[in-house]
Predict the structure.
Amino acid sequence: MDFTFPKEYELFRRMVREFAENEVRPLAKKIDAEHRVPFETIKKAAKLGLMGVPFPRKYGGSGAGETGYCILMEELGKVCTSTATVIGAHTGIGAMAIYLDGTEEQKEKYLKPLASGEKIAAFALTEAQAGSDAAAIKTRAVRDGDYYVLNGSKCFITNGDIADIITVMAVTDPSLGARGGVTAFIVEKEFPGFSIGTLENKMGIRGSSTAELIFEDCPVPKENVLGQFGAGFITFMKTLDIGRASLGAACLGGAQAAMEAAMKWAKARTQFGVPLAQKQSVHFAIADMATEIEALRSLVYRTAWLIDTGQPHIKEAAMCKLYGSEVASRCINRALQIFGGMGYSREFWMERAFRDARIAEIFEGTNEIQRIVIASNLFRELGLRIAP
Amino acid sequence: MRIIVPIRQILDPRGFTVSRRHERIFVNREEYIINPNDKNALEVALRIKDTGGAEVIAVAVGKPRVDDALREAMALGADAAYLLTDEALAQTDAAGAAKALAKAIEKIGDFDLIITGQETLDTGDAQLGPWLAEYFGIAQVTNVREATVSDGALRAKRDWGTGYAEVEAAPPVLLTVAPGANKPRYPHGGRIMAAYREWEVTTWGAEALGLDAADLEPLTEGRGRTFPPERTLGERLTGSPQDVAADLVQQLRLQHVIK
């Protein structure tokens, strides 16, 4: 058993950290305030292979696997959750679905420009009446010659309005339900009948966009069926499983940054004649944060290792997302308390981190859903199947 | 066009603190980086490669860990890398290292340019460039900020007191690049992976370079170290921002910092 990172990952982390500090951090406050996507950062990230970190080099990616991708998310999570969200929705779920289940032709045509960052991806599953209950989606795809015609709408789609390529789940046979009746499709934004609906005005991650997508008689060529016909649910679940590990990594970065900032503040801020860092209440808060962060780090990188070595990882990935989002929220909350009034001020980033952290408990499967995934996997090991 | 870039690995200054009071250096994090000025030199070489095409070769002397600096150079864009290491090479001084580099460059073959950083951040040495130019009997341009190659001619912009001087030279030429001459690029993620998983660093010992222990005998000898005196606390100015600013200007005038 060896817990050290191979040297390529050490250098990769150093590069990503410098990129995050020099290119991402200076914009973090601005994009939140202006409620806009940092396209300039995406362009720079693309040049460094950071829009396709987990994908093999032959598809234009960095070939750094899930481990490398988690390192990227952790370092971005330290400085700007919005930027992590834009790159995460693009890489970790949008493009990932094509990488996992696409044909060679689809990877050539779609994954390559996505991995190189020339184009942006989104992942469209959620609908007004189908979020946690993903099997309840209503968007229909009906065969018409060489095309499938899509009708319906998706909501809360990260990158929805900026994406060039969207992986969409639609019902192809309502009588079969989730298993067999749902298919994944690759949709280009130029396809007729595709349009953007309303944009969300969110509490946090305001430097990322969240859109409604509308499909009105949108013809999708039959060669754009992603994965097996009727097995869209499996494609999407597999994709989400992997996305959850890296989301945990972004949370790890957020928690770590909050703790480090709180420690620096506690060292500098004097009350009752001594620095806050001399106060036991601060020691206890820091010790608890550090312990949870260390546990999360082990969980995240072990899960990344499971994914990179092709081992079962569904339960662990759900744990990364569940535990990661809660640790981030808890640590940021406690760090903010140590900062006192300064933490509540918009002058400092802790208030933004507090707003940003909350989404991680909700998106990519709510934490309640993660608990169901974890428990059902545990009971399955005992031979008991749990109905969702 | 072949460009040789000698690089040096140094202890990351962000990882240690110098205590003047205790006359000690506290290493909190032992991490090594490419000497920042050598990164500037590599950047000059890579920009020439980007515009007109060139083969960029990184060479370094030192302990086996210097391998990491060379892999980073390859991740940044170098096409090949040579590490000169063995027990004698790991312990030699600046003059010995220059000898080893000269022999290695000879062994690599013909070259058009040697581009290196002007100085090292750790020991403050600035002898490698002139040493190599002397060894090969070629022209050298120091204090370079930018360099381009067109129609076989090298054009370099160098710091010239309050302005710049533009010089032209016919290769082979040696350039030493001024510290902070440019903003070095970040390595590409895919190249980082390939630098460790696919590409090789060629390793040569002293014998392969035709050097013996006497050649590498350090010319310098360390006899101890001293620390600059502890800094005294400055004077604290208090009052309204206007008063403090006025006070500050007056103090600076009195001490002849400004006129």
